[in-house]
Design a protein that fits this description.
The protein is 81% helix and 0% strand. The protein is built from 3 helices and no strands.
């Protein structure tokens, strides 16, 4: 016997997971294009100040229930993941 509540929640969670996957892939494409431009113009690829400001802005915009610390961990993970995907480092 399948619990209807569990089944509905899993369907919604699966849909959100697909949205997250799409968003991360889109971000990766955008950063790849930005890095191509930065390389072509001799700009540094990483801007730690920009990363910190981005996370602060996201924390300010966050309506929860994710905590500010959670926002920080999530987006630092995303930044690291993108760097690894693009540069293997």
């Amino acid at each position: 016997m399948t619990d209807v509540t569990v089944a509905k929640a899993r369907i919604e969670i699966d849909a959100v997971d697909l949205e997250l996957l799409g968003a991360v892939n889109r971000r990766l494409e955008l950063v790849r294009a930005l890095h191509e431009h930065k390389r072509a113009t001799g700009m540094p690829l990483r801007d730690a100040g920009r990363e910190d400001a981005m996370i602060a802005n996201l924390q300010e915009a966050n309506a929860g229930p994710l905590s500010d610390a959670g926002v920080d961990r999530l987006f630092r993970f995303v930044l690291d993941l993108i760097r690894t995907e693009l540069h293997g480092a």
